[in-house]
Amino acid sequence: MQDVRVENIVKDYKVGDITVRALNSISLVIKKGSFISVAGPSGSGKTTLLNIIGCLDKPTSGEIFFDDEKISGYDDNMLTYFRNQNIGFIFQDFNLIPVLTVYENVEFSLAINPKFRKNHKKLVEEMLDMVGILELRNRFPKELSGGQKQRVAIARALVKKPILVLADEPTANLDSENAKNVMEIMKKMNRDLNTTFIFSTHDKLVMDYADDIIHLRDGKILQKV
Amino acid sequence: MIFWIKLAFKNIFRNKQRTFLTLLPIIFGVTLLIVMFSLLDGLNRDSIDNLINYESATLKIVSKNFSIYDKKIDINRVGFLVPDEITEFLKNSKMVESFTPEIIFTGNLSDGINRLPVIVKGIDFSSFKKTFKTLEKTYPKIDDFENGEILIGNDVLKYLEINYDSTFIIQSRTSGGTFDAFDVKLLGVISTGNPNIDRATTYVDIDQARNFLHIGRKVSNISIKLKKETSLYDFMKSFEKVLSKYPDLKLVTWEDFAVEIKAIDSAKRYSSSILIFVFLLIGGVGIANTILLSIYERYKEIGTMRAMGAPNNVILKMFLFEGATIGFLGSFIGMVLGGLISLYLYKIGLDFSSVIKDIDIGYPIKNIFRGSFDIISILKSGLFGTFVGIIASFYPARRAIKENIIRILK
Question: Which CATH number does the domain housing residue A76 bear?
Fold first, then answer.
């Protein structure tokens, strides 16, 4: 079991002299292996919530637990290590390293992870095969379509076998066909690897893939479906 | 490790033109470093060779009144009789290759019209030939040296009117303090490449010098050439017991005569180092600038890596590798260029004779400057350039880990 538990999270930002509350007392529990969508209009706090769950940002107050491990008190180095070991990220702009091939982009995730000293080739090729782009392994990102790039990003996020994958609007830069393909791959990975996925989106079609949808507005949970 | 080296290579060639411009001062700095030190090492080596082969031998027995800094040579002060025990010791020592007496005094060399101040050395032809290389550098080649003959440095010729078989007059003060002169016939000229010899030294037979100065069997010094494998220290130790019986005598080694060469050498090394330091500083600033620009351009990438859990030391390592790679590439090209130039200097050398003429450059060398070719020095210079790259990229690399992840991901 690796449940993610968020308790009374508040996040304030200072904009000049004004304090803006991006998240207001958010509490939720995300079960291991679930496929969760965070939905809401721009400025509702979707990205901030994902950043805090993903240990990229610290809450102003409130606690985050992975099972019973309280990570909200961790310092930057501990959070980096925690992300390294447990969390995968998929970005809206793919954020692939342009000078590395598809294979090397995925391998990068293992190269920075002390758990994976050996067998990079086997793990990377298995993952590329799972997302259906093994034949593109020697191509560079500029030689790929948007959908293919996002598959590389998914492989990169999953190759280290994280307990949680966070995807910030993973289909925003894709056409509907590619968006559908990417969501199906994510869902397949969620099923096959039992990895928890939390993704933010505006897209109704994409939301339909989720087990649960958390609707945010003005930093509060409006509705949990 | 291979992954990071490969990544560093790929990253530095993202902007080839910028990388090339960054490499230039490093290439230039490392090439200059290798060439300068090759030349200085070569000058130092040749200076010491010239000193030992033509002036100091390995060491000399001199009077305790002798000083290497004393420009006025007073035979009454520095002349001494060689004890038989010392002659016997030198003859029997297995460490001694050869030894020779010298009488040195200052005088004027005149062709009847022009008059030049010169150093006159009274030498014993056969032992002098074994101890010094001077007599191998005469024109024409000579097999013997008789009373009434003179050898002169080839630069002295420029100031004199001479023909073959010319006769010169040497004027000097004798040991009695009176001025006297004697005639000598030109036997040949000496061209050693050592300006101290070629510009101002003349050689006459030792007996003629003794007779002229009225000093009996006295000498100015005994020059000793040690066998190649012999250490100076071992010889001095073995000679200590004999020498201690003669408190009026002492030993001076070639190292004592080389003090000035060493001082000039270290001054030139120091000034060259400053120049090279400036070039490598420019190179270092160039690398720092390139890495900093690269970090600004790749903020989002760095953010992604940090979000994925790349620890700070990995991000640091990545940029230090890039700096080191630029430093290494520049150094490598510099090593190849510098190595080739050093090889040329070592094998062929640079002929500066038309530039130097009568200028005193401080080294006992004129005409051809030869460099040294030391592969270890070349490798060290290359390592130094790589080190500059690592140091220069450290500050910008720290920028990459200081920025807020959320900000750089946007």
Answer: 3.40.50.300
Q: Are B72 and B188 contained in the same domain?
A: yes
State the helix-helix crossing angle for B312-347 and B2-12, rounded to 10 degrees.
70
A33: closest CA of chain B, how far (Å): 20
- Give me the domain span that covers residue A162: 4-224
Cα separation, A135 vs A152, whole angstroms: 12
Closest alpha carbon within chain A to B300: A95
Distance between B39 CA and the closest CA of chain A, angstroms: 43
**Domains in chain A, number:** 1
Q: Rounded to an integer, what distance in angstroms lies between the CA atom of residue B242 and that of residue B82?
A: 12
Of B201, B220, B247, the one marking the end of a domain is B247
What are the structure tokens assigned to A221, written together?
């949970």
- Measure in Å the smallest separation between the Cα of B350 and chain A Cα atoms: 47
Q: Give the DSSP per-residue string, B89-104.
A: HHHH-TTEEEEEEEEE
Q: What is the ipTM of this complex?
A: 0.91
Q: From chain B, pick out residues whose CB is under 8 angstroms from the CB of A111.
A: 3-4
Residues B208 and B284 in one domain: no
Q: Mind listing the pLDDT tens digit of every residue in chain B (410 residues)?
A: 788 888 888 888 888 999 999 999 889 888 988 998 898 889 889 889 999 999 999 999 999 999 888 877 788 888 999 999 999 999 999 999 999 999 999 999 998 888 899 999 999 999 999 999 999 999 888 888 878 899 999 888 878 877 767 889 999 999 888 999 999 999 889 988 888 898 889 999 999 999 999 999 999 999 999 998 899 999 999 999 999 999 999 999 999 988 888 888 888 888 888 888 888 888 899 999 988 998 888 889 999 999 999 999 889 988 999 999 999 999 999 999 999 999 999 999 888 777 766 666 667 676 778 888 988 888 888 888 888 889 999 888 888 888 888 888 87
Q: Is B301 within 8 Å of A111 when comparing Cβ atoms?
A: no
Give first-to-last CA distance, chain A, whole Å. Answer: 22
Task: Say if the Cβ atoms of B309 and A77 lie within 8 Å.
Answer: no
Q: Rounded to a whole number, what is the distance in Å from the CA of B271 to chain A's nearest CA?
A: 43
Interface of B with A (CB under 8 A): 3-4, 6-7, 10-11, 14, 300-301, 303-312, 314, 405-406, 409
Contact A5, A72 (CB under 8 A): no
Range of the domain at B149: 65-247
Name the closest residue on chain A to residue B307, using Cα atoms: A56
Residues of A in contact with B317 (CB under 8 A): none
Per-residue DSSP letter, B140: S
